[in-house]
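With this grant's support, we have settled on a layout for protein records. One resulting record is reproduced below.
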Amino acid sequence: MYEDVILKCIHEISDDEEKNFLVIKKYFSNYNISIDDIYSEICKWIKEEMLIYERYATPLLISLINNGVDFYRPGLYEDSVLFDTLCLGFKLENFKKILNAFIKNGLDINKRFKSQNKSYSILEYLMLSDNYKEDISEIYMLLIECGYKTTLKDTFFDEYFKKQDYSSSNYIQSMKDKVKAIYDREIRKNSINIDEKIINSDLTTKIKYAIDNVNSDIEVNSLLINQLFGDINNKYGVNNNSLIQRILLEENLNESNLLELIETILYCGVDANYINSDCNCMITTALHSSYSEKFILELISIAVLYGYDINNKHNNNTTILHSAMLCPRCIDILKFYDYLIVLGYDSTILYQDNDKYDYNLEDCLLYASLCNQNHVGEKWYDEKYSKTVFAKFEEKYHGIVEKNDNKKIKDNGLDDIEINDPPIEKINLSEKNLEIIEKYGKILNYNNYISDPAIGRENELRKVEVALASMKKMPILVGNAGVGKTAIVDSLVYNINNNNVPKFLKDQIILEINANSLVAGTSYRGEFEEKLEELFKECSEKNIILFIDEIHTIYGAGVCKDESNDMASVLKKYIDKNNLKVIGATTDYEYNKFFSKDALKRRFLRIDVKEPKEDLLKIIIPKVIDDYSVLYGINKTKNVQKKEFIHLLIESTKINHRVYDDRVNNPDLVISIIDIAYAYAKFEDSDEINIGHFIKSFEDCDRLYDASKEDAIMKLNKLNQCNKNIENQKCKIIKFPCLK
């Protein structure tokens, strides 16, 4: 009855919820029907149409939910409107949007509903349906994030897995493991019930209890910490007894568990730069204790990830490098120095002693040696060893100071001074090694970059380099399609090719591989594992860094019948046992679906890559136009570099102008428009790019609404006409007799 009315609504759908609701009211105004009944009719129509119009109906349903649909009232198919929606079998992405709208408008996520004379929670109902059996772990996590309480029983899980026949598929079996892992994790969270005696005991007892009970799940650990120590910021962060420093003063603690505990405390919000009254930060405290060198380097890495300023001066005008030199223990100062440089340490920082004398790093090292000569047994003060260390340190220190001086000259704008950068060395691998790795992937170092592929991503790039330097973590770039994740990796390669990276990354090879390409041609059992073993062995031995774009595809890749050893399992094993470095890139959706519930999450540091803001796009667009001019060999006119033109490009590609549900973001969207414009110029054998080419590019763009494209084209035409008028006026002025 209402099919034609719903279709009319569909044709006027937009991103504006208020506008959508006005459209619904307009077309249903002639019918005596409530909002609740309209919602049910749309659900009925979707079910009959087999979800053909699901993508367009989703914003209509959300608009109705936001305008007062009673989701507890009886529905057409089930005992509530909510269950009507759940049983439709929406795609997961649309289902999550609708469920979020329900929750936003007051749905009790823990409420039990009646269906066919039985009582179900939302999760139980979804588990017993056939629509989301492969996505149930992700839905489970969504519900938990929205406040769902884990009340399921083990017997219910057993019945559920038996009903779904999970033993028939390795992929479904892994899904079972993920759901069970989430369930067990929530049970652990809810079962944290510390004895009152421990909570009321002294700090030492609490610390030892925390060390014994901490695990790799940082969220579970944070609940444990909050119960043990209360508000850690107010209690331990502002006085002379910092919690982390107090913990570090304990003896005989398990170093691995201690790192997990410290990371949890920083995760809970404690200031990583806190300095106590003795002029010590947590790194200095660890240096003066009996922890291993590996532990201290890991502690620095974790602290930096939580905002620690590697150049922070303590109250006695020393940095952690000066503290490492002056502490009365044996530490490999060259290794320590290299690691700090990787993290952004400024080699020119001076140390000021009590007599107001400034020491540079060489002076400080010599001063430390003279002051500690009486410490017997320290290899530092063996004369032969000291000379070797001083010689190596002097070479490293002066090299970096000279580099910093050159950078200052460039920063001051003195471009006329010639600075001779060191020559770029070629890839140092034999033909046999190159043949092995090239048959599995693409060596990005061979790419001919015109300029740095990423702008304004210094923070993300620094985090990638820090993670590659870390012994515990590896970087995984997470962000929506088109925001520039791959460009950050290309920027790293560009810096490697130009010797603009820390020493540990110099001459490194970045090899891009694809999970699907590796699977190709492996029809026999064990063949895929052999290919991976050969590749991973070669990379770990030659210090080759793997880049896996769409890294979520490693799950299930290469699985043969009756086997469960996919690429993810092999990679996990090799990361644990060998010195293999990996950079991953994936979307937020895929990360949550695969990584957030898998053990690989612990091995990767998540680096969020957001869509660039308008200020950054204003810098990116002119650079892209310059690069494309070089690539295509086409000149650019002044008109396509004007502020008005750049502003128009940015405004026309904003999110509200993009086709609903299109997953491509800026800067990729605006770059694709520039690319097609240059393609038109090349097709027409034009010597220059002009606004007319961009008008044609907008006409071909299928990622923007028709109305948005028409508006952009109209503005471009106006700008083009305005420029022509200005040029005509200039010609008239030049021809004016009195101005000759």
About this structure: The chain has 34 helices and twelve strands. The radius of gyration is 31 Å.
